[in-house]
Amino acid sequence: MKVAIIGSTGYGGVELIRILQQHPAVSLYTNHSSSQDGSLLTEGYPHLQSIIDQPLQAIDTKKIASEADLVFTATPSGISAKLVPELLKEGLKVIDLSGDYRLKNSKDYEQWYNKEAGDEHWLHEAVYGLTEWLETDLKDAKLVANPGCYPTAALLGLAPLIKDRLIDEKTIIIDAKTGVTGAGKNPSPMTHFSEMNDNLKIYKVNKHQHIPEIEQVLTSWDAAVGAITFSTHLLPMTRGIMTTMYANATEEVNIDQLHNLYKESYKDDYFVRIREKGIFPSTKEVYGSNFCDISIAYDERTNRIMIVSVIDNLMKGASGQAVQNMNKMLGMEETMGLEFVPVFP
Amino acid sequence: MKVAIIGSTGYGGVELIRILQQHPAVSLYTNHSSSQDGSLLTEGYPHLQSIIDQPLQAIDTKKIASEADLVFTATPSGISAKLVPELLKEGLKVIDLSGDYRLKNSKDYEQWYNKEAGDEHWLHEAVYGLTEWLETDLKDAKLVANPGCYPTAALLGLAPLIKDRLIDEKTIIIDAKTGVTGAGKNPSPMTHFSEMNDNLKIYKVNKHQHIPEIEQVLTSWDAAVGAITFSTHLLPMTRGIMTTMYANATEEVNIDQLHNLYKESYKDDYFVRIREKGIFPSTKEVYGSNFCDISIAYDERTNRIMIVSVIDNLMKGASGQAVQNMNKMLGMEETMGLEFVPVFP
Amino acid sequence: MKVAIIGSTGYGGVELIRILQQHPAVSLYTNHSSSQDGSLLTEGYPHLQSIIDQPLQAIDTKKIASEADLVFTATPSGISAKLVPELLKEGLKVIDLSGDYRLKNSKDYEQWYNKEAGDEHWLHEAVYGLTEWLETDLKDAKLVANPGCYPTAALLGLAPLIKDRLIDEKTIIIDAKTGVTGAGKNPSPMTHFSEMNDNLKIYKVNKHQHIPEIEQVLTSWDAAVGAITFSTHLLPMTRGIMTTMYANATEEVNIDQLHNLYKESYKDDYFVRIREKGIFPSTKEVYGSNFCDISIAYDERTNRIMIVSVIDNLMKGASGQAVQNMNKMLGMEETMGLEFVPVFP
Amino acid sequence: MKVAIIGSTGYGGVELIRILQQHPAVSLYTNHSSSQDGSLLTEGYPHLQSIIDQPLQAIDTKKIASEADLVFTATPSGISAKLVPELLKEGLKVIDLSGDYRLKNSKDYEQWYNKEAGDEHWLHEAVYGLTEWLETDLKDAKLVANPGCYPTAALLGLAPLIKDRLIDEKTIIIDAKTGVTGAGKNPSPMTHFSEMNDNLKIYKVNKHQHIPEIEQVLTSWDAAVGAITFSTHLLPMTRGIMTTMYANATEEVNIDQLHNLYKESYKDDYFVRIREKGIFPSTKEVYGSNFCDISIAYDERTNRIMIVSVIDNLMKGASGQAVQNMNKMLGMEETMGLEFVPVFP
């Protein structure tokens, strides 16, 4: 297998390199960047010294098509919208890590992203790559829209309850917390160490572009889901997302039943680990790995269910899931090259 | 004014020292500890070198009564239950920073704290010291139960909405986040740097002892409030609490109305700062100060109100509020000795 | 006393505000900025809400002279060089927090700062404001060059040994470590949280502009001091500097003698605290305060003396020392308004 | 290959698990612990859920010998002293990660560790496993004393200069900085998050047990090396060591010559990466990997050479190097199973 990465200079691209470098079925991968043709990745990422020595290449779709079978586009929002159809036209398979092909309705995209949406045909064709809950066989897919980091954590946590209609769809609240790599590579006042260290920030209140993404998927599972509440916090840590989710139970439930539901739902999914009853996951327990760890609680006093899920935002929340999808597109074991033990502590 | 601190070796006690050292109306204060009579505070707290040189004293209630007018008990839960009545018997005024005199119903205390409750007479007499919403004049109070850190942040944030009956009392969800000083001075696996750094933990799910404290106060304001959902997260930072709170609006509201309500509610309260519309506070913006900063948002899509409040857990969440209450008990300006500018960055 | 701050939008300026806000002898201070005339400080520093409400003013030297007695210039290097003489011409006293008036030799400045040096007359007139070792009475000074953060920590630590000729001047090595506020307010890749958190960087190897500053002062104390080794590390913390310093003893010494020398040297200096023998300071023990804590060790195996000093880089390393100098210039107690207890933890 | 880990509940043991889990030539490994026979590793290390499910086993040397070929002893100092000879007696090969078999002179051990030294025969037989500078073929070794974390970073940095006699042996100063995992798994006041976060501590001044270890190796390379200065600092980060080292040049040198020497010395060593001239490594650039990155500088002003080296203390500083040594003992490529790309950011 030969693959290409477009956008190697962002954190998603660099994490793809970390994974593919050790992937047994990828014989070659090349790195491309719009802005830094000819420069060395090691200038911005000296940790890659002796690992990646070839210079970054320009984004030449024909050349990429002649050398690779599949492309990861780890580009900022707005770039993939135009680039992806060009790559597909060359016969390449594409896994897009940006948000450009996730929202089926181009109006939603334009409203929440405030940019021009991607090609309507490909918006319709794109498979939303929440690997554990795929609705089509990826072997037939040409374009995978890789899910956002928050939606991955939220949807894996909510899926069993929504699919079993165990919660009141109008009561869903998702309180999400992320490490700072979620804000990307570019320095800004928000991510300046002096002001982010020992600090906790809430941002994009009621405006985060992952709101419509989560709603779209939940509604596809249960049409009664409409608007949800989703809030996002920036924490003084590098990696990791925790979503703490609340919803009212619609019928009498108990913790054993809920716990069994989750164990059963994910029994064949290597990367989703359900914690023992009463034990809740911390973000560091999945650091550097592709796991999503989930716990569930039920409070009889309020008849409210709480679900807690954690992921590494750069792995299961981005590049790890992208490679998991690649494995499926290419007919391989979904775990191949992804069995990283979490780096702890 | 002469005051004594019992429990000077904990973080609450040490923060009291930081404040009282600079308080213009406190001429003397003494430090007492059950376990370390005769030792020096500077052994555990070398930052106090040249500031506190006298050794720690034993807890001799008669001696304290002969030297001080007022005592802060910054002792662990379970100690104050017995100690406070002895101090009161000697004629001392007491501000108790532990949780022992907050819950009016001793059964609640025993259930949530799993310890023996304090004296029934004093449980009844104790004034709950949420300074901005006091229901009696502290000048007449002998015992103030100083609020918990989380309840302070949550109650200051919810008060205007609850008192104006603007939210559905059955939909209140409080997602709380704290820095690690909230877990106290004693080292434990949970607070071990190697495992807490770059990590986010959720703990005491549906079991936190601040749940009944918040419910008790909210119910006293609006009898329709019953059980609430309150969850607690431990973040890799030293100080700071943020509570992100959600509730459904009961009637048509808009953001201007809500914002004005908050500005109006706290217009005479120096330590509560309402942010401009659309601006949300970060915990570091109150670091080392007695401020509680609050923002409010309204989402028309879900008809849900969100309130965000931040405090320094050791200041407004403990020792700062305790001194604010002391000022009121002694008939002074509530801001005296407390006008610390936040330490930023 | 009326004072003005030029450069209020940087960290040095904001720390001056924190101090002056609580200073008993400063009745008024105004905030000035070259770039943000008319805007509000609270836009970049919301922690100042309700504390500083007036907008930033332009830098109009005549207007400042009509309103203030003394000015702090907390401006970037290169700005003060030209601005300071203009302020002095108006009869203002100036305390310059930049590096522009510290190096007596303009060629040194141009070599190490790579900028045009300040006015020769004022370079000569400026008093280097290392408060504990001043060589002239500040009451007569018009211009104080406030020392750099690293030089303050290093010079306070080395002074007793150098002045007593106890170390071989050719063996001085200063290994310095700083928190990230030392790099200022502007975001950059170096201070981006995602790459600075959980990381340790060494920077400006053999090129730091504080090298000639330290050498100039040491040489003025002991002409045998020439070039020293001084290295600088950036640590994942907000505030704090530690300098670990090494030098060979020139004669037989022992730890008691060294410890007594330090106790004696600083016995009248409130802000310098000598630790007990065998106890070494941590940076957090001076956090938010104007203290410099120092320890000394002697290793018989190598005949080498080690000195460890810590400061808060924004306090004793910048704005705290500046106010200490202001107090002296105005004939007040040097501790006035500066007796902050360290914020711990 | 079948291997056993004794001491799986410490950080060294857990890091061995992370490596061996992905090692292509290790078919089985078992986990042993003195204190927790029968309990699950996942109780203390939930990140291992679904990865390690079998319970911890007691330390039964005969049983281990019947099941494994090689044992890692990742036990605290003082335990290996007695345990290692018992394992060797059973015919097992042993890689000891404790300090018990590093110091050849038992008196040195007893002085610096304040414990009883190991068996004299095995002290003599043990091969010091600084992999890049091994003096015997590990294929013949029965016992490898795996180097300490600090000595690994220091010795790899100093070796080329010492071996080429380019520095004055009496001027060596090593200023070392470590992340908190270096202090191990047990919580203590020193490593309590509230007091370690945003803090920098210096510890064990002139008393660190790695001093004689570094001196022993340096002296074996160049008998003129005697006592060195080595100081240790604890930083608010999880992993990573940087050693900043200083020594006077003995003859005229220049930076090109020094840089070439280092490039040449390590040209066949995959895990040692020499940075380009003028570029210095940060600890995060080796996070989670087995690399040691090194830079060198020369200051003509002082005739002093500076070397900077960084490692991940749990990888190249402990378990990574241990597996590197295992590979060599078993006649495999030294890089096998160790080609982890650093986790960045």
UniProtKB/TrEMBL annotation, chains A, B, C, D:
Q: Which Pfam families match?
A: Semialdhyde_dh, Semialdhyde_dhC_1
Localized where? Cytoplasm
The organism's superkingdom is given as: Bacteria
Gene Ontology MF terms in the entry:
N-acetyl-gamma-glutamyl-phosphate reductase activity
- The catalytic activity of this protein is classed by the Enzyme Commission as 1.2.1.38
Task: Give the pathway annotation.
Answer: Amino-acid biosynthesis; L-arginine biosynthesis; N(2)-acetyl-L-ornithine from L-glutamate: step 3/4
Family, as annotated: Belongs to the NAGSA dehydrogenase family. Type 1 subfamily.
PANTHER family of this UniProt entry? Answer: N-ACETYL-GAMMA-GLUTAMYL-PHOSPHATE REDUCTASE, CHLOROPLASTIC-RELATED (PTHR32338:SF10), N-ACETYL-GAMMA-GLUTAMYL-PHOSPHATE REDUCTASE, CHLOROPLASTIC-RELATED-RELATED (PTHR32338)
Give the function comment from the record: Catalyzes the NADPH-dependent reduction of N-acetyl-5-glutamyl phosphate to yield N-acetyl-L-glutamate 5-semialdehyde.
List the protein's name. Answer: N-acetyl-gamma-glutamyl-phosphate reductase
